[in-house]
Write a structure and sequence with these properties.
The chain has 214 residues and is an all-alpha fold. The chain has helices spanning 2-10, 14-22, 33-49, 55-72, 82-88, 104-127, 134-144, 152-162, 168-174, 180-207.
Length: 214
């Protein structure tokens, strides 16, 4: 029973990700970090469901998630409005890595960049044909987003990993939604929601000149 429950806990659900990202923004479109983290936990499940292909990204995402959780559970957690709090208290290394290599702002920025890649990839899956090559879709999404922040060695490894991605039916199956039409319909809800969270976060970082935190 315990093993069965553990497996169920690890199972990816596109609907859960959609529901979580719906909670990410306040009425004033401020990002709730706790829901953002919960949404990312779901996306990590998605990557892990596909085996070792996305390990180079999912492991880093898990590390970043834990840093944010530790910050929210720390002494400042009770009033943790991350960007405002860290900037006001000089807890962000703005020009070079120094005393705050694991600031919340820097950590969230790394997840933010990876979120753009997943958003683009999921949108390509949504609009793809049955015989479309997931390796091409994933590589194109990566090259449009996350690759520009990775050194050559990681870019090379990513390109090789994408070549062994399973086909479109496998991706649709792990969504745990139903048939292809149901998956496409739910992706039609989920991708715009993820996109909106991305845009709001991007605007916040632009306003505070934080997009290039080292």
């Amino acid at each position: 029973m315990a093993d069965s429950a553990a497996l169920e806990e690890q199972k990816f659900s596109l609907k859960e990700v959609l529901d979580t990202f719906k909670l990410c923004l306040s009425e004033n479109e401020e990002v709730f970090v706790e829901h953002y983290v919960a949404g990312w936990r779901g996306l990590v499940k998605f990557m892990n469901t596909l085996g070792n292909v996305f390990t180079f990204i999912s492991k880093d995402a898990v590390n970043k998630i834990q840093i944010l959780v530790n910050l929210m559970n720390g002494e400042s957690g009770a009033h943790y409005s991350m960007v405002k709090y860290e900037l006001e208290n000089h807890l962000v290394d703005l020009t070079k890595r120094a005393g705050h290599p694991e600031s919340g702002c820097r950590t969230l920025l790394r997840l933010h960049r990876a979120l753009r890649w997943l958003e683009l990839f999921l949108e390509r899956l949504r609009t793809s044909m049955e015989d479309s090559r997931t390796s091409v879709m994933c590589a194109d999404a990566y090259n449009e987003s996350l690759s520009q922040h990775h050194p050559w060695l990681i870019r090379k490894a990513a390109g090789m990993a994408f070549c062994v991605l399973p086909g479109r039916p496998t991706f649709f199956e792990v969504m745990n939604v139903g048939g292809a039409e149901a998956v496409v319909e739910m992706l039609g809800e989920a991708v715009p929601m993820i996109s909106r969270v991305y845009v709001v976060t991007e605007e916040l970082y632009v306003q505070n000149n934080l997009l290039e935190i080292p």
